[in-house]
Every structure is written in structure tokens, then in C-alpha cells.
Amino acid sequence: MAGSIQDTFFEECEELLEATDEGLSAIEGGNHDPEVVNAVFRAVHSIKGGAGAFGLNELVAFAHRFETVFDEVRANRMELDEPLIQLLLRSCDHLYNLVAVARDGGETDQAHHDMLIEALDKYIPEEEEDLTFEPMGLGGPIDIAAIDIPQAPTEETYQIHFRPLKDMYSTGNEPFFLFQALQEMGPLEIVLDDSELPGFDSLDPEESYLSWNLTLTTSEPRSTVEAVFEFVEGLCELSIEGAGDADADAAALAALDAVFGSAPVDLTPVAEPTTMVEETTTPPFEQPAPVPTPEAQPEASGAKPSAPKAESTKSEQRGPNPTLRVDLERVDRLINAVGELIINHSMLAQQIANLDVADVRDVETELEGFKNLARDIQEGVMSIRAQPVKPLFQRMARIVREASSATSKTCKLVTEGENTEVDKTVIERLADPLTHILRNAVDHGIESPENRESANKNRIGEIRLSASHRSGSVCIEVKDDGAGVNRPRVKQIAIDKGLIPENAELTDSEIDNLLFLPGFSTAKEVSNLSGRGVGMDVVKNAVTGLGGRINISSTPGKGSTFTIILPLTLAVMDGMVVSVADQTMVVPITSIVETMRGNDDMINNLGADGTLLSIRGSFVPICDVAGALGLRKEDNDRPPGVYLLVETETGQRSALAVDDIHDQRQVVIKSLDGVCGEIAGVAAATILGDGKIAMILDPESILATSPTTAGAFDTERRMSNAS
Amino acid sequence: MQAEVKSNDQEVKHAQFSEFVSFTVAGQAFCLKITQIREIRRWSPVTILPHAPSDVLGVMNLRGAVIPIYDLSARFGLETTEASERNVVIVVSSDGKPVGLLAESVSEIISIDPEEIQETPPVDSRNTMEYIQGIISHDETMVRIINLDAVISVPEQVL
Amino acid sequence: MKTKVLAIDDSRTIRNLLAATLEEAGFEYVSAVDGREGVDMYEDVAPDVVITDINMPNLDGFGVIEELRGTDINSKVPILVLTTESAPEMKARARNAGATGWITKPFDDASLIFALKRVTGAAA
Q1: Domain membership of residue A619 as a residue range
Q2: Considering its fold, how many domains does chain A have in total?
Q3: How far is CA A432 from CA A401, A439, A454, A577, in A?
Q4: Which residue from B minimizes the CA distance to A686?
């Protein structure tokens, strides 16, 4: 139980940290709206509160400092200037680290920790500077925790005089509950003094006329007896007298009194009441029930709790934006089931088509309905997994800050389209490549402030991170206003490393894309930032692993733009089913411009083995898919007569030659991850209606591997996917 | 399974027996522990993986999952199997992921006393040493116990 | 009849902690995610005791106390405030607004139950 609550805490921490981050970013952007400030304060406060519950003292202590400083801001006692905002942002980053360490273990950077604490302490006003926060202390002069500790096993008899003032009732405190609590400690004698009760006619219902004299014999320590009256201190006349400890009493009560300043606590023994009425307590006013009835103690200790789960769940959902937290695995099971449903549909459709029945129109209509419903369910289920990229972008803002301070550059990250929703898996797996791109942008893209100034640029570099939906894909763009790719140097490095021949003739775009080649790193010396042993090829692999594409464009002196195009969903896509060397394969529909049957007249040889297809007067290179996949070794096999015209990201067209085209259908993408390594030309697999597996082709990569169309590096093209 | 239950009831010595499934690959006898095997299926044509090495036959649909099928014969450095309907695919588990192994045919279930397992004598074949965990004698024939982890660890760089 | 607790806190962690402790101890537990929701739910839930956080969006704990105390019929319901502030002035402020008592975060099971016992008579 505790473990799962702790999990909840860490989950909530993520949200709270995001809220903090978001708020601070808004403040950094000039929004000093009190609500924004309050939201940050509350978030950090909640982190502290939760962390305290789990004894995460380092986190509590740091959050407390943050909160204390921010409270000054909130109360308008401190100005939110730029250095403070930056300190708070870095402190927020550090909170992320502390939470991560608390959750995953590991070490905090102690020097950094101390440095931030020191910096924060400078903002904490004098009178609070010495305030040491004790995370596990219960606070206040009364140590409630002492009730657990059987310090005084010897019994003691206390004489308690208790006279509520009328204000006590208005706070909802009832004397009888207090007596009940006392009664649990030992034998309690209760004597009501109603001598002050006036006649009915002059009774003021708001006034308090009653007082009690209690005799309690208990082995509990005195502090526990006093703790019972904690809430009513200052709202009653109270005296507690043990055997000869009046002095200690006075001291203890004086301490209590300090809590409420001039509260009218009567420390001297109260004058004897004029009349003593011996009787068991009768409830005052409307209180109907006698005190110690069994009903008043609803559950004996240790009774099996029957948790009213439904009720609490229901109430959790009553917020303005009702949400339901669902285990991701459940959603994925549903997605898989829907995937199977779609396969099942196509199997059914195929088997009905194979039946030799004259009139299947009615069945087909129903099947069509089945298909539409399956698609609706699928869209619904996929949308559950979709999440805004905002948290990811916020993480990137931290990355940029860290990278900036590590490289002594000043950069700001501007984000756009934060509410663009992307599949959760995509978001998770995008974090690493994006981190790398951004570090790279700060490290290699943005110039030093001095260089920027001499180039007539703003000293502060700007990196723009944006997300948008683009015709069934998600487009993530990282655009910096730095120096752009140093093409002569990139080319020279590629030549030096033997990545390209010395006499290679490359277009600008091809040179830029050399950055993605394995083993390429432009850093002269391994910087402590981007040179962590990984190059941009790792970024590219991560993106292609998601079925996406990455492309770079650059203008010298103006900056570079990395564009990542990702499929909207990772589960289904529309595909063209084709035959290639006796195998059934699927080509993503979004990559296909048109399909056509060619004849010999349309084929033109170019050089030794190049062939071009002439289409309405223009010529496009032909790529034999079977050859590119290594499924047809013999050159003399004439390329077949069916072509899929595809277009690359850069607008270059090619014709993919296949044996036959069957139909177009929606297919469920089955990853080949863990089944086999990466296969050139193949993006994933799917299961067809007959239960057979078919490869889903990646036209871009087929073109790159085919001897007739390869050679261009910039065959970046958007990965096709379902819309 | 039944045999296992019975052996539990008998003397301690018998409880040590393990059950193995023996099968032939390129005419030689091999075996795998019965607990390593998820199921045995009749061969049906697989989907070819482009650019795959010769011992990777392709992928197969196992109740909605895509599983790779290896040709054990080719993997052991023996001749490649011309798979037909007479052959079987032994589905085993690798890190929880199913993998199919093509064998000629399944022979029988044999009980092996672990003490009878002999170490593989050094022979001049790297594949053998790597893939064979030990040998036992059963009904006068030598049965090779397969080191499953070695067999199904995909040499990714090949693909 | 179980004693019904309405807990108002914007922190899911605190709500879960309260739920775990209170349900274990045999209380009936209902929660609200902020002060506004808590006050809105109050009449439907008709709790025997209210536990409320102080720092919350939409309506803070002081607001909750004021609104609940503002209506005659509710004026006697015990209200415990949850506070991380060990500072006396926070408790004094809560009391002036009409709070019955307070629970200092982080709380342990015993102090939570003890606080409830003193204001409702209900014990685990």
C-alpha cells in the first residue's frame, strides 16, 4: 500500500514539477499574474508535503527553501528579477533531480545542491534564515507522537477543570469527544457543574454556562492528557493537575499559551464551584446521545475495513475535468485486441470473397459496418494513448538551460504547438533524440555571445522547438538561429574519416545530411556536452526506429533546422498490398503518388544498368524492389510491369517496380524489434487476412539501398502512416 | 508431465530426472529440456526476411505474434534444410519472446539423469562447441543437448 | 454507521495517504480535489468531519472553513486543517476562521486518528 502511494507521489511529483516549470517559464516570459505565482507556490508546497510523508528529507529541505523564497515573492515582499528567476528555474531543475534520486536512487550533485541552497538562502529574509525546518517533526509545542511511547507506566491521577468559552462551540469542538478521548486512557469521573446555568428565560443559546471537573487515572504521560485539549487551548478555561506538579503544569501551559498569544488560558486553579452536582454527564443543548455508546465507536480497532472504494473513486471524478488514470498496459491490451479485430475483419472478408456464393452483398454491407466500427474503436483507443508534447518540451527547456550554462552561452528555448498530441510511446522515445539535438544546437549551433554580437545578432541565441500535425504525421522541428552547418569542414571531416570519396560531388543538402552518418562527429575535441560518444546517427536511428524521418536544412550564418516527421500512431496504417518475388508485401499508402502498369515502351535504359520510366514526358528512375531486397539475384529477370510512383521528401520521384498490386487495406503494424535486427528496406511487418505475415516496406530505404537509385543521401522522406 | 508427478512420489533419486524432447536435425539426434519448449508445430511456409542469413528462414505468425524461425541445421553448420510439411517447428522462449526452430522431426520424450550427461569432447568444430551443452547416450545413440541460449541469441550484425 | 470523512486536498499523494489510513481504520472516506469541489460536494456527502488542506487552487482551506461555517446548518461540523506549517500563526488563523483543529503534515496514522477522535469521538 505504502509503495503504491509512493508511486502516486512520484507520479504526482512529475505533474507538480511540470506545473512549476510551466509557471516559472511563464514568469520568465513576463507573466507575473498572481495566479501563476500561486500555482508555482502550491506545486512546490505539495511536493514538500508529499515528500515529508515519505521522509524524503533532502527533497523536503530543498523544497522548503524554494517555497520560502517563493512565498516572499508571493507576498510581494521580493521582486522577481532576472537573476532570481534564473535561480528558481535552476532550482526547479534541481528539484527534478532530487525527485529522480529519491525515486531511482543514485547521487545528487552535492556541490550543485549546496551552491543552490546557498544562493536561495541569500533570498530568505533574516528572521527566517535561522528557521530550521524539521520534516518529520509534528510541530507545535505538543508532541502528539508521544502517545505511542509508553514513557510513564506508573499511574497518575489528574484533576482536570474544564470550562469551555462560547467560542469553543463555534469551532465545532465538542467537550464530549474530548472526554471520550480521555476515557480511553483510563477510568474517568465526570462531574458537570451547571450552577451558572441561568433560568430558561434568560438563557442565551450562544453562551456557555457549563463547566466540568474531571478525574482521570491513567498511565499515559501528562503530555498525552494535555494533547487531548490541544484544539481547545485558548477556547476554554483549563487546568490539569497531577499529584504535585503544578509548577511543571504552569510551564507546559505557558508554552501552550504562547501559541495563541493572549488567549485566556486560566493557569491558576479555578475557584471551587459553588455547587457540585454528582451525576453522569448529560449532554448539553442538542447533543442527544450519552457519551460512551458502542455506536459512537463505529469500528473496533483491528476491525476489517470495508473500504468504500466506489465512493472515493466517484468523488475523485467530480473535478471540472474528470480524468481516469488507467494502467498503460490495459490500454495496450485493448490496442492489441483492436488490432486483432481488424486482422479478423480482413480474414473474414477474404474468406467470404473466397466462398462461391452468388449474392454476398448483404454480408458485405454488414462487413463494411464491422470495419467502420472497428476503426472507430481503434481511433478511440489510440486517442487514449495520445498525449500533448508539453511535458516533453518542458524537459527540453531544462536541457537547453543546462547546456547553456555548461557551454557559457546564453540561449532561450521558444516552444510552439505544445498541445500537439502524440502517441505516448513516441513521446517517451523522442526524449533522447531531442535531447541530443538540442544539446547539439547549443553546443555547435549557437555561437558565443561575443561572436553573435560581432555578427549583428542578439547575444541571446534562440532555439525554436515546435510540434504540429501535418497530413497524418507529426512534425517536430528544432530550429536554431546559430551559425548553420559549416559545410566545408563537415565535408572535409567526412573525407578524412573515409565516409565519402575525396572527389565526391555533394549538394549542400547532402553535405548537411552527412552529419547523420555513423562515426561522424564534428567536435574537434570531445566536449562535455554533445560529445558523449554518440553522434547524430544515433538520433537518426532512434527516429527511424519510430517509423519516422529526420532531415536537416541549414543556412550559413542563419542557423539550422532539424525536422522530424513521425507517424501519428504506431499501430496501424493504410497500405498497398503488392507481390514481390512471390512474397506478399505492403507499401505505405502515403508514400505512393500513383500506381501504373507499364509496358516496354515506357522503359528507357540509361548507362549500363540504369533504367528510367517515362511518365507523361518526364523520366523517373526505376528501382526493382525484389532486387533491392536481395530476393532476386539474377539480373536477367526483367523488371516486372507494375510500378508504384513514390516521391521523396526532397521531391525526387522514383518508380518502385513490383510484380503485382492486389489491393489497398488497413494493416496492423507489428514491430520486428526483438524478432530480428534492422533490415534495409523493411519498416515492420503485418499479419494479412490469411494469417500470413507480410513485410511492410520502407520505400525511402529501398531507394537508398538499390544500386540503381542509391547515391543520393538526401532521400529523406516522410514515413508513411495511417491518417 | 505425468511422469514428473510420479517421480515426485518415488524415491529421491528419481526426482532428479529431467525430461527432454529428442528430435533429429540433418540426421543427427538432438534434444532440449521439455520445460524449454512452448509448443511444437508442423512446418508451414514462412515469410522471408530480406537480406537474412541462411540460418534465418523467416518469420511466422504465432497467434498474432511475429516470431523468427531459425534453421537449426544451418545454424549448426550442417546443410540447410529443405523444409516441407513433414518437418516441425519447435517453439522455444528467448527472454519471454518466442522463437521457432526448424527440425526434421521429433523423436520421443526421454528421461535423463543429469549425472549421465557427459561433457562435449573437444572437436574441431566451433559451432558444435558453442551450441552443444553436453551429450548423453540413449538407446545406443548419441543425443546432443542443445545450449538454447547460444542457439537463439541472434547475431544481430548478420542481419 | 461509519464516521464519514470528507478530505479536501489538491495533492493526490495526500489524498491517497488519507484514504489508506482512514479506510484501514474503518472510516468512510470521500475526497475532493480542491476547496471549491469540497464545498460543492459537502451537502451531498454530509460528512461527519471535514479534513482540508490550506493551499489549494480554486478555493483555499480558509475559504472552505468560511463557507462551511457560513451556513447555519453546517456550523458545527468539525473541520480539521492539514498544514505543513508548524508555525503557530497558521493554526491561529485557521482557528479564527472556525477550524476545529489541525493535523500537521507529515502526519502518522496515530496522530491522524487521534485528531479525529478528539473532534468526532470516533476511534479506530
Answers
A1: 572-705
A2: 5
A3: 16, 11, 34, 34
A4: B66
- Which domain-ending residue is among A386, A407, A426? A386
Determine B/A contact with 3+ CB pairs under 8 A as the test: yes
Q: Extract the C-alpha cell encoding B70.
A: 531459425
Query: Is the ipTM reported for this complex over the cut 0.85?
Result: no
* Residue A199, pLDDT score: 67
pLDDT digits (tens, 9 = 90+) for A558-593: 999 999 988 766 666 778 999 998 889 999 887 788
Let me know whether A382 and A398 are in one domain: no
Contacts of B89 in chain A (CB under 8 A): none
Among A52, A181, A303, beta carbon nearest to C106:
A52
Residue A652 and residue A691 in one domain: yes
Give the whole-angstrom CA distance, residue A697 versus residue A573.
12
Question: Nearest-CA neighbor of C55 among C35, C77, C69?
Answer: C35
* Residue A357 shares a structural domain with residue A400: no
Q: How far apart are CA A566 and CA A548, in angstroms?
A: 4
Residue A310 lies in a domain: no
| Residue-by-residue DSSP string for C75-109 | TTS-EEEEES---HHHHHHHHHHT--EEEESS--H
Asked if residue A560 and residue A549 are part of one domain, the reply reads yes
Go through the domains of chain B in sequence order and give each one's CATH number: 2-149 (2.40.50.180)
What homologous superfamily does CATH list for C4-120? Response regulator (3.40.50.2300)
Model pLDDT for residues A366-376, shown as the tens digit of each residue: 888 888 888 78
Question: Residues with Cβ < 8 Å from C111, sequence gap 6 or more?
Answer: A138, A144, A145, A147, C103, C104
Contacts of A676 in chain B (CB under 8 A): 49, 52, 56, 59, 68, 154, 159
β-pairing, A386-388 with A421-423?
antiparallel
